[in-house]
Fold Luciferase-like monooxygenase.
Amino acid sequence: MKNQHTFYSILDLALVSKGQSLKETYNNALQLAQHAEAYGYTRYWLAEHHNAPNIGSSATSVLIGYVAQGTNTLRIGSGGIMLPNHSPLIIAEQFGTLASLYPGRIDLGLGRAPGTDRETAEAIRSDFMHAAHAFPDELEKIQTYFSLENSRSKVRATVAEGVDVPIYILGSSTDSAHLAAKKGLPYAFASHFATTHLWEALDIYRNEFQPSSDLKKPYVMAGVNIIVTDTDEEAQRLSTSLIRMIVGIFTGKRDYVQPPTAFTDELKEVMQNPQVHQMLKYSFIGSKATVKDQITTFMKQTQADELIAVTHIYDVKDRIRSYELFAEIMKELNETV
């Protein structure tokens, strides 16, 4: 085990459960963030996804403002803004504004994927592929807009200049590991769904890391799927909603998050499908004792500075309870450091 504190945070997609309105979905997201603040979480990030009926986090910066307004100390940010979808100037203005409203609490996580299908990506931005290839340059532009030096330029994001908004690079392959290392920025790997390149990406990032004014040594965040309840059996039952979500992704039949059902033989078989099994490799599902053992192993293997937990559960009460138990696990593990 590392001889230092491991932070723990939340990545939320503002899941839309069957029978639930968007207003209820957003209220649940705020309720979760308020509990997370009480449970000692470091940050609460919202993803950016489009054209998915079961995901409500499309207008990410708007939701960040809503959640920040209803909390007091928790860091609120993007996990992430999918930069090729946007103008760097507009993102700098949005996050500069947010950080002026909620000083010292806003994070800007940036990714290069579209967060949607190809047709929708092109509807968002016709030159999406060019923008995706230009991700390093677009990142550079955002950093420039946040700098005080840009005050002498013709094109300025005046509300962003000199405003403190830490930038994080998100990755699900090895590409962004090189970039995060070169720029000396913290790196968040999406191991909650992109499991194949985790170890290679972490090695690249740590080996190539160049200290910067933002960061003196590598800082790794790792995504994990977490479902914790009082018993292994109940956790398995709640995980049936997640399994159906994953099947929906592979079959192209996305739907609202379904209520949990019995963990049938058919679902057990689905879990053994190579694609599903690989995607859910870093999913820790069970009682507090079970998940604590799994998390201990994962932390030893990755040496991550921070775990960011994703919990795809149908009912917000069960989701909040899972995050409460996960916080207890992390506190106990940190006490043994």
Notes: The longest strand covers residues 220-229.
